[in-house]
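Tutorial sheet, problem 5. The two components below are modelled jointly, 422 residues in total.
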Amino acid sequence: MPPTSIPVPSLRRLPSYLRRLHIAVEQGVAYVSSRQLGAAAGVPAAQVRKDLTWVDQEGRPGRGYEARALAAQLELTLGLREQKRAVLVGAGNLGSALAAYPGFGPCGLRIVALFDKDPAVVGKRVAGFVVQPVDSLARVAAEHQVDMGIITVPAEAAQSVAEAMVAAGIGVIWNYAPTTLRLDAGIYVQNQDLAAELALLSYQIVRRRGE
Amino acid sequence: MPPTSIPVPSLRRLPSYLRRLHIAVEQGVAYVSSRQLGAAAGVPAAQVRKDLTWVDQEGRPGRGYEARALAAQLELTLGLREQKRAVLVGAGNLGSALAAYPGFGPCGLRIVALFDKDPAVVGKRVAGFVVQPVDSLARVAAEHQVDMGIITVPAEAAQSVAEAMVAAGIGVIWNYAPTTLRLDAGIYVQNQDLAAELALLSYQIVRRRGE
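Model answer (structure tokens):
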């Protein structure tokens, strides 16, 4: 692991490079150029080369990067080869969808428990889990050495759920509720703001109308 | 609408600024500084000022940006005040969650119909919609002047669904399936790659273990 942390804009592009490299490996292609990697992330080749200095890989002039080796290095850097455990609070449709999402396992994530505060939902089977009451969060988090909490409750319930996660010793939170959480600076919160993503699509739609 | 399109990195920050401005307006705060806007998006104040030249707003030295006016301008630029219509294909958990998501309405998005190819699901009521067969997509898209297609089917079904959307005249696609779609260059595809988002969290979790 590098001693300094990778700057966020570079970090955000690494999964796009990795996805492109996986395609190359699947297709039996040995080398991928920085131009090809850049196309996958929407940046110029020079930016790719700069980003990849953080993961300590250099391309070969005229050939590019060795796809399998660079993919392995990126997986290592991003921690995708280590097992990580998460709990999910909010067993509604979005929570159920994430609990059953097939793309998380290959990234080393295992969701170990599902919680809800609604007594009508607690005890029911959702995506293969028996939904537990939020009161049990601290016990379960300690038992399973949980790394991350995923929040899929409505906006008005998110702050109290986040505080319960922090109290249970969880330091990384993936927040799907459309609200800004107020937590200690030491807690890493990643907001999955679907409305912000929609804004980018909205811009494209309205531009097309003007054409 | 500006004649040239806003560069993607700047564009991606505008929703963060907008969210921060909405908080200010809610709190009755009249001005927001570029430093405060930058904190919301994780960039320095100078970058904020540069980004906002695209939406034709200048701050006042020493006071910052007028929150209400800049929010209105950003909403206009991003097309959030115009009505946009979408269809959603894939009435599983994720599709149901998105169909019921309360954050889209305020952005001007209306989902007009839900589709699924599974005959066991077609005809059922999901999130207030009667699920329709994918065969009806072209007819419904023309009838409602649909702007966007949302794909929430499994990866292996996504390409054929995307092609059906394009054939129905839809030019903007929001793809939640964890796969790369191969479509004409004129089609705007935005991938919501949850595994890529997870990679950023994975990096944080593994770094914390090393501390």
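Marking note: The CA atoms of residues 14 and 78 of chain B lie 8 Å apart. Full credit if you identified this.
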